[in-house]
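In the design runs reported in the main text, the only information available to the sequence generator was the tokenized backbone. The following block is the verbatim input for one such run; it is reproduced so that readers can re-run the procedure and compare outputs position by position.
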């Protein structure tokens, strides 16, 4: 493969290797970089199954002319499943991500606002259960949070320092370590005040297909999932190696939803 070929051509070449006998995981730097997404497909709909009452929740995705997500609409809007909105600055960077109740969009369930700082830092401000005035979310005093996100030279999240000042909790330092194949290998959350480890996870059960979050840079950013492959194998995949169905897995989350039992539909070209 010519290293000077356009990124899109190189990416197609690398993805095609997924289906060639050896089943080796992708570990090419061109594909590891978050800017190089699988642009041939975008998520159209996620069908989320409730294994306890046999209900199905449909999440329908809408994009702008640049291919960035602008809205995700659930089939049933309410507590725990608001309509999700995305807003961007003139550099197409995500500035606001919030879940609102559909009735006249007067209140949000959650709201994250992002400010972009020098040296690959992002300041994230989070709010819960606040008002929406003239179409814009307004800060709430209920459990606000502040997080400093740090990214590596490839644009992947490597450190998150989160604090909830209203309840005087200690800062949690969360670190993300990636392996040579471009997958998250180790996650660790440490209480800055006591130095104790609150949570530690080693990731080893990846498939050798394309991570669903790799269909858009916004999904990687929101999901904090920059891995090349999926955390758990799916039951089936499309021709591009994207997962179509998960059943009974553990740890699959997209946006803030559990998709361990879900079907995914794409628009591909």
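Verbatim output:
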């Amino acid at each position: 493969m010519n290293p000077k070929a356009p990124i899109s051509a190189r990416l197609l070449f690398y993805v095609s290797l997924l289906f060639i006998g050896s089943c080796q995981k992708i570990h090419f730097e061109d594909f590891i970089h978050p800017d190089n997404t699988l642009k041939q497909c975008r998520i159209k709909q996620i069908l989320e199954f409730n294994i306890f009452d046999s209900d199905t929740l449909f999440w329908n995705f809408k994009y702008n002319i640049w291919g960035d997500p602008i809205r995700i609409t659930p089939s049933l809007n309410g507590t725990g499943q608001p309509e999700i909105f995305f807003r961007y600055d003139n550099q197409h960077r995500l500035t606001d991500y919030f879940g609102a109740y559909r009735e006249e969009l007067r209140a949000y369930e959650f709201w994250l606002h992002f400010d972009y700082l020098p040296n690959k830092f992002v300041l994230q401000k989070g709010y819960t259960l606040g008002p929406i005035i003239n179409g814009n979310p307004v800060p709430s005093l209920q459990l606000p949070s502040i997080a400093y996100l740090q990214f590596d030279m490839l644009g992947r999240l490597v450190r998150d320092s989160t604090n909830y000042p209203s309840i005087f909790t200690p800062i949690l330092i969360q670190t993300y370590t990636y392996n040579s194949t471009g997958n998250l290998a180790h996650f660790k959350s440490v209480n800055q005040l006591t130095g104790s480890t609150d949570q530690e996870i080693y990731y080893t059960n990846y498939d050798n297909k394309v991570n669903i979050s790799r269909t858009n840079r916004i999904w990687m950013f929101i999901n904090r999932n920059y891995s090349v492959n999926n955390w758990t194998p799916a039951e089936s995949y499309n021709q591009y190696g994207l997962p179509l169905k998960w059943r009974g897995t553990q740890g699959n989350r997209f946006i803030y939803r559990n998709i361990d039992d879900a079907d995914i539909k794409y628009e591909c070209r």
